[in-house]
Amino acid sequence: MAKQFSWEQEYKRTWEDRNDRKVNEFNMETETFYSNNRKGIVRHLHVIVDVSEAIDKSDFLPTFRTNVARILEDFIPSFYNENPLSTLSFLSTRDVCVKYISSMDMDIHAFLGQTGSKWFSLLNGLEGSIEIMENTMHVKEILVIVASTSTRDPHGYTEVLNRLKTHNIKVHFISLCGEVTLYKSISKATGGRFYVPIDVGHLSMIMKELSHPTDFNGTTLSLVKIGFPLPTMESSVCACHLEVKSVGYECPVCKTMVCSLPISCPICNTQLVSTLNLSKSLRFIYPLKPFIERAEDACRICQNKGAYQCDLCKSTYCSYCNGFVHSTLSFCIYCELPHN
Fold this sequence. Notes:
By secondary structure, the protein is α/β, with parallel strands linked by helices. It has helices at 19-30, 64-82, 108-112, 122-133, 158-166, 181-189, 200-211, 275-280, 282-285, 319-329, 333-336; strands spanning 43-50, 87-94, 97-102, 139-146, 170-175, 194-195, 226-227, 230-232, 236-237, 244-245, 248-250, 257-258, 263-264, 271-272, 292-293, 308-309, 316-317.
């Protein structure tokens, strides 16, 4: 095969191949950061996706669209695994048109469309999201995945920012195009987070971080009505898909049939969960207390130099295992054993 000309070769970002970047990636993977704060386990995460012309840019090969679709396909099951009592919904925006869809009916490729068109309107997306979320009792968050460096809006952001603060809605941004002052200032004003991924791997790490429950921000929440539906084997029309299902769950409040759990009942808005969903969320309600800093013995797990000790069972952990136990397990391994 003939040698390709330089303009025929694949575009490469040579400035990203520096050794210090590899060191930083290693540190990001090995260092574990955790918070001992109480988490908001009943979340409503609303994802706004920019489907304007900018989504077909090829900064992340082959295009932003391809990578966003793949990331969202992995994110949905990961989110429900970490947040079994939460709600996930999506909204795509271009020009003045917005398209809302719940994750139960989610077809990523149909949702994103075949080609991007027109321009991005952040204001319309935020206003549509507030209307969806303002009456819920969840911990409310909006995630904006944007590929545009500009937005066309009918008016300013003062009113929408006030509404976001009134309803305690955090706005997170993933700016695929680079840092934009408007996006960063909105996330800062609402207590959200702002990200600029450097590559697809970094984008995956960001989405994984966002799948974890966020720290409880002190918002005063009302009691949330939770129902434990019983399974039913009678054929009936499920309220979530309006299709005939042979197996489902019956809402204990309004007797409506739904086909999966967890879900908010479409008729009476009762949060329907199983006992398994509730038990999985227990670790976020009662987080593991920090271990005492003490470096006398070797780590009981990996035998490296110890740095922390459990106050109850006196087991010693190194820095890495301490981070793993707090951020991933959320319980001390040896406290759970019948005999230490």
